[in-house]
């Protein structure tokens, strides 16, 4: 497994990394998080989190994949055989996310068609919940919804088709098309949004700083959470992608480009979203705070209302917006599925075609549960728990393992310096070590403690969506804990002819 496929160009890797970071959720998550946590003042903890957690973790994961030349499970096995399960845990997290992420892309696909005739009408909430999703009560699956199933099949045909083509001919080519198209489409939307009446009021609401919140620990934790989730850290993507880099790669610079590109897109999304919300608030004669809504509600309930009220070219800009969501989603989904395709391929020594059919095919089949009438409730709970108690917890464990247990931070630093133009020496090296050894684990540790305490005391979604404790245990807690169990089980299986220790490395270089 030493001879791995490689990107055709460095630009191909950067586009793929940026594409996986600029996900579907960034378009609506960041604006709402920033607004709820001090507006313009939020950018200070956000930048601090980017520099002390986001970019340091990107460098760490890029270096892990590049040095150990494998998928996340193989890279962690080569780091230390005792922690192969950590790589499989991250792969399992990515697998769970892929099953429902594809369904959200399918919704966006449907809405891009709906926008051509503004089929959602005046009651956009009722259209989504009752007409389109045909939502059942929490805990009930109901039947498959044809209007969701058909675009979902198309999403998987595109995703698996790209993955069948491989790295250079599939993922790299797809990202060279999807990412520039996404940026152009979204720039058109933002420029149009800035020209709307009320856009200034929306931007004032978004950027107006509330400096008092900086003394609140929750705001700083929110900043770390946003950076952590938006950069695709700790669910195997960046480790896998960096294993395809050529031997001489500027890892440190790639991490900075990926981190700042993602943050730039998030800022662009915030400007566009709040310009539109300002317009909507003015049309309704209410404050911006009364129309702000996060999650899927913003994309599929609020934005159709805004599109209805556009002074001209409603259908055109509606189509552009939802097509942007589709492109953002597809780039991320391809990246997510690649993690377990690569893991299966490495572990069981099978062809890429078989790995795509097995890993991608199984994810496609399980995604059907989210295309049922109970899909939205199931998606909401699974997404919350796999992110909060999967991604964040896996990131915390990852840092503790690498820095404090196997103590491989210095060897990884040496490797990054050997292949990078920007060296982790002097102040930059100290910043990287202090961030990973102290700042990131402390903040993530506090996040996990607070989340566990909160979710034991309160039932997630009980007040807003009527979820029962049993429902959140079945489809939330069990899903998150099940990912850990799957990681342990897969790590116990024997490798099929794969070299767990790098052939070019001595036993002293690889921690057995």
Q: What is the topological layout?
A:
Blueprint: H1 10-21, H2 26-36, H3 43-68, H4 72-79, H5 84-114, H6 124-132, H7 146-165, H8 167-194, H9 199-207, H10 217-230, H11 237-242, H12 251-284, H13 296-309, H14 314-348, H15 352-366, H16 375-405, H17 409-419, H18 426-457, H19 462-465, H20 469-492
Helix pairs in contact: 1-8, 1-12, 1-14, 2-10, 2-12, 3-4, 3-10, 3-12, 3-17, 3-18, 4-5, 5-7, 5-14, 5-15, 5-16, 5-20, 7-8, 7-14, 7-15, 8-12, 8-14, 9-12, 12-13, 13-14, 14-15, 16-18, 16-20
Structure characteristics:
73% helix; mainly alpha; 512 residues; 0% strand
Describe the structure.
With 512 residues, this protein is an all-alpha fold. The chain is built from 20 helices and no strands. It has helices spanning 10-21, 26-36, 43-68, 72-79, 84-114, 124-132, 146-165, 167-194, 199-207, 217-230, 237-242, 251-284, 296-309, 314-348, 352-366, 375-405, 409-419, 426-457, 462-465, 469-492. The longest helix has 35 residues, at 314-348. The chain is globular. The two termini are 18 Å apart.
């Amino acid at each position: 497994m030493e001879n791995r496929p490689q990107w055709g160009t460095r630009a191909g890797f950067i586009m793929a990394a940026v594409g996986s970071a600029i996900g579907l959720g960034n378009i609506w998550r960041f604006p709402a998080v920033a607004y709820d946590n001090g507006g313009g003042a939020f950018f200070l903890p956000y930048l601090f989190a980017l520099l002390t957690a986001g970019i340091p973790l990107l460098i760490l994961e890029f270096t892990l994949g590049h040095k150990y030349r494998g998928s996340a499970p193989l890279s962690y096995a080569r780091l230390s055989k005792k922690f192969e399960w950590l790589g499989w845990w991250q792969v399992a997290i990515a697998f769970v996310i892929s099953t429902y992420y594809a369904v959200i892309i399918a919704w966006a696909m449907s809405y891009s068609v709906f926008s051509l005739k503004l089929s959602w009408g005046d009651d956009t909430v009722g259209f989504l919940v009752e007409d389109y999703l045909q939502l059942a009560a929490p805990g009930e699956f109901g039947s498959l919804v044809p209007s969701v199933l058909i675009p979902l099949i198309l999403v998987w045909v595109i995703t698996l088709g790209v993955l069948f083509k491989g790295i250079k001919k599939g993922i790299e080519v797809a990202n060279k098309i999807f990412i520039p198209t996404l940026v152009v489409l979204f720039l058109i939307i933002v420029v149009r949004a800035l020209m709307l009446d009320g856009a200034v009021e929306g931007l004032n609401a978004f950027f107006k700083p509330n400096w008092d919140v900086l003394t609140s620990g929750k705001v700083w934790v929110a900043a770390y959470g946003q950076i952590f989730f938006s950069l695709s850290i700790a669910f195997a993507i960046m480790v896998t992608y960096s294993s395809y880099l050529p031997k001489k790669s500027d890892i440190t610079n790639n991490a900075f480009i990926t981190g700042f590109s993602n943050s730039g897109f998030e800022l662009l999304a915030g400007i566009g979203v709040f310009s539109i919300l300002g317009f909507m608030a003015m049309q309704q004669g209410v404050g911006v705070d009364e129309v702000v809504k996060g999650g899927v509600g913003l994309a599929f309930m609020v934005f159709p209302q805004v599109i209805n009220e556009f002074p001209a070219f409603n259908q055109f800009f509606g189509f552009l917006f939802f097509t942007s969501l589709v492109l953002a989603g597809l780039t991320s989904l391809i990246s997510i599925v690649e993690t377990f395709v690569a893991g299966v391929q490495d572990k069981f020594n099978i062809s890429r075609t078989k790995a795509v059919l097995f890993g991608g095919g199984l994810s496609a089949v399980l995604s059907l549960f989210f295309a049922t009438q109970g899909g939205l409730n199931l998606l909401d709970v699974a997404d919350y728990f796999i992110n909060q108690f999967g991604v964040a917890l896996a990131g915390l464990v990852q840092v503790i393992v690498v820095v404090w247990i196997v103590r491989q931070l210095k060897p990884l630093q040496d490797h990054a310096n050997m292949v990078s133009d920007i060296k982790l020496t002097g102040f930059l090296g100290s910043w990287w070590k202090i961030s990973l050894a102290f700042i990131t684990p402390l903040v993530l540790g506090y996040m996990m403690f607070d989340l566990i305490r909160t979710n034991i005391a309160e039932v997630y979604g009980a007040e807003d969506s009527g979820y029962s404790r049993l429902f959140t245990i079945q489809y939330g807690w069990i899903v998150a804990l099940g990912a850990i169990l799957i990681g342990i089980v897969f790590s116990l299986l024997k490798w099929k002819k794969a070299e767990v220790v790098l052939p070019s490395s001595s036993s002293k270089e690889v921690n057995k």
